[in-house]
Amino acid sequence: MEAPVKSDPSVESGVLTSGASLPAAPPFRLSDWLAGKWDMLVLGALLLVAFWPILVGMYWSWLLENTYMEHGLLVIPAAAYMAWTKKAQLMAIPRQPSGWGVALMLWGALQAVLGLAAQWIWVGRMAFLVSLVGYIAAVFGWRTVKELTYPLCTLILMIAPPTFIFTRVTLSLQLLASRLGELFLEALGYSVLREGNILEMVGIKLSVEEACSGIRSLMAIIFMCVLYNYFFVQGRSTKALLLVMAIPIAILGNAVRILATGVAGQYNPALVSGAAHEAFGYVTVIAAALGVVALHLMLQSIAKAWRAHHA
What we know:
The chain is mainly alpha-helical. 69% of the residues lie in helices and 4% in strands. The protein is built from 13 helices and three strands, in the order ααααααααααβββααα. It is globular.
């Protein structure tokens, strides 16, 4: 007869006794962590090296006064945080590298070369995003690209629009802001004579320059609206509506800025320029951002009332 096997009371009770010890965790080895990830590291390093001059030029463009792209400094951290919030979904997606991703990376490299040769700055910078999408597809697969669609599209905001579009939009905004400023000032009873983008009032002359056209606040408001949509807004139609409405809200806010400057200038001409003028600009951006939030809350209230009425 076989002898009865004695069970370990520490195992039966589910509690380790003082004499028992947990198995030692395996030591961390860099080689183990890098196993299977060399393709990601090598392709990522090649992507950065190939586009380094373009990335450096893009960074310096954010710091230039005449590009109105100061928000570009925040775009990459914002997009990275958006991707981080999706880490659970991304970890659940199996890696399915695609050869078409490598082809897309090569297409981006060719586009960058053509952009540099023809001095098409926008084309060269957009080429980086094309290669970045190709890199993600080549390493992780197209399902990962699909999951990261919103953060990747957000990166477009770090690239200034083409010069001919930027110039045309800026000029149109200048004239529109001048007309709205004239209309608002006259509605309040002030005498205004407008010639193009110049508003003449009693004792002062307001010149709506490119910096005052609203293009800077418009770019900033669109970026903030994209962030707000991602974190606080549900539904594609509502997100699209808020993004579209951010444009007239920013334009209206800039017109109110001109109105406030003109009214303040009637009492103290020093407020037309300098630090006070810059302060009006920051207040305008904040007010426009609050306007987008207020519009979202109003849409939520309307939708809630409609559902309650049809319940």
